[in-house]
Design goal:
two-stranded antiparallel sheet; alpha+beta; 170 residues; single chain; binds copper (II) ion; Immunoglobulin-like; seven-stranded antiparallel sheet; binds zinc ion; 34% strand; 1 helix
Length: 170
């Protein structure tokens, strides 16, 4: 019994600073399918210098590329997720490829699903932040049905929204 109490005390002492650290630098979105779709997964965001490291794991997609963005409203309540509004764009930029200079802050690399409908993504993006200017917390992550052409304004013509999740501090 004594050993068990000591174990709990040590565990608590370690857990408190770790969770405080995590709240400062990380955020997570749990993606849920919109009506009639099956896409689901998780996206984590971790501050990395002046960029944010994004790690996404999504299942239930059709094979191939899918537009993947942060949208301006953290509201996935509509059956088609149109409640999440347009792309997160605090800088007033055109829609574009995040690898180029001019793009919405919410424009992310496409999710490319394999033959089993699974997609993973690892990317470091800017301008994007967890807290402060360009804060993504409280916005929504959207996965689209089709590929993002990175040209059509202001959406990339990536079709309907197949999954949505609100970004929360983790
Ligand atoms: Cu989108
Ligand atoms: Zn965009």
């Amino acid at each position: 019994m004594k050993l068990r109490i000591i174990g709990i005390a040590v565990g608590a002492a370690l857990a408190i600073p770790l969770s405080a650290w995590g709240q400062e630098i990380g955020a997570t979105a749990t993606l849920r399918p919109t009506a009639g779709n099956s896409a689901a997964g998780t996206v984590t965001f971790t501050r990395k210098g002046d960029k944010v490291a994004v790690v996404a794991n999504v299942t239930g997609l059709s094979p191939g590329p899918h537009g993947f963005h942060i949208h301006e409203k953290g509201d996935c309540s509509a059956a088609d997720a149109m409640s999440a509004g347009g792309h997160f764009n605090p800088g007033g930029k055109p829609h574009g490829d995040p690898a180029t200079a001019d793009h919405h802050a919410g424009d992310m690399p496409q999710l490319v699903a394999d033959a089993n409908g699974q997609a993973t993504l690892n990317a470091e993006l800017s301008p994007m932040a967890i807290g402060g200017a360009d804060d993504i917390v409280g916005k929504a992550v959207i996965v689209h049905k089709d590929a993002d052409d990175y040209k059509t304004q202001p959406t990339g013509n990536s079709g309907t929204r197949v999954a949505c999740g609100v970004i929360a501090k983790s």
